Amino acid sequence: MENEKAAQILFLNPVFKQMIWGGSQLRTRFGYEIPGDDTGECWAVSAHPEGDCTVREGTYEGETLSGLWEKHPELFGNPGLDRFPLLIKIIDAKDDLSIQVHPDDTYAKAHENGSLGKTECWYILDCPEDAALVVGHNAGSREELTDMIHQGKWSELIRQVPVKKGDFIQINPGTVHAIKGGLMILETQQNSAITYRVYDYDRLTNGKPRQLHVEQSIDVITVPAPSVSDSVKSAADLPKNTMNELISCDYYRVWKLDIDEPISFGQDYPFLIMSVIEGEGKVNGRDIKKGDHFILPYGFGKVELQGKMQLIASSTN
Ligand code: ZN
């Protein structure tokens, strides 16, 4: 019975992305085989056309997540959506990422060929002491925002927020944000890649600056920015051996689990994505370890976890 249940778990092969700001920690800290020492992103659970994960083993071995979504909607509770709604990434930022903002669904639909907007959230896996992220800005009005952007007053405009390992940050559409060098992050996001780049530190790629989207950014940035306490919270020391909800928004629910004794709970969601971010253990008798990502399908029933490990889980709302 245990084995039969474990066989329903969809383990996925990640897709790796090389980036000008990427590093090698996805190999040194997570044990992945990466394509180079500039690997910035591990698309761990993705059905996006730019990086569609395949199933690692079992009945559906080799099938893409987008293919499973189309051919076997019953695995995901027959949600009636045209695409897998979430995208889970691990980001290794050796260098600063560009400063960016995402549109909401309404703006993206009107201006980006019917695309979805993007809401995302970050769990900080690791960071140096005195680390900071860009979350929000300091402009008081849209006029002030426009002036500061056009005049390149970046250090005045951009709000840097101190962060620690285990912090959790929700990035709603319209929030100016950037990951800084030295951070490793697990990102849960809507399945969309629509990003407006506000500023790229005047860097060059192959001798050219990357494209900026200044006017779209000015259109979509929320003014004034929400407060720091509304955006960042600590998730480092939550109660053990239980699902701790970190966020519930229109697009997803995210939980953290910190386990050191056996627990069980019902898989009561359309599907449940789980990422092991620390340690090792078992799910329904099946060995799992740091760096594994899997989906528990619809109707899976009782989930049994044991071992000493930390996980981030997510589902749709
Ligand atoms: Zn983003």
Briefly characterize the structure.
The chain is built from eight helices and 23 strands.
SSE inventory with pairings:
Layout: H1 2-6, E1 10-13, E2 15-23, H2 25-28, E3 39-45, E4 47-48, E5 51-52, E6 54-55, H3 65-71, E7 86-92, E8 99-101, H4 105-111, E9 120-126, E10 132-137, H5 142-150, H6 154-157, E11 158-162, E12 167-171, E13 177-178, E14 184-190, E15 196-199, H7 214-220, H8 228-231, E16 232-234, E17 244-248, E18 253-259, E19 263-267, E20 272-283, E21 286-289, E22 293-296, E23 301-315
Antiparallel strand pairs: 1-6, 1-22, 2-3, 3-7, 4-5, 7-14, 8-15, 9-12, 9-14, 10-11, 10-13, 12-16, 17-18, 18-23, 19-23, 20-21, 20-22, 20-23
Bound molecules: zinc ion.
Zinc ion (ZN) binds next to loops.
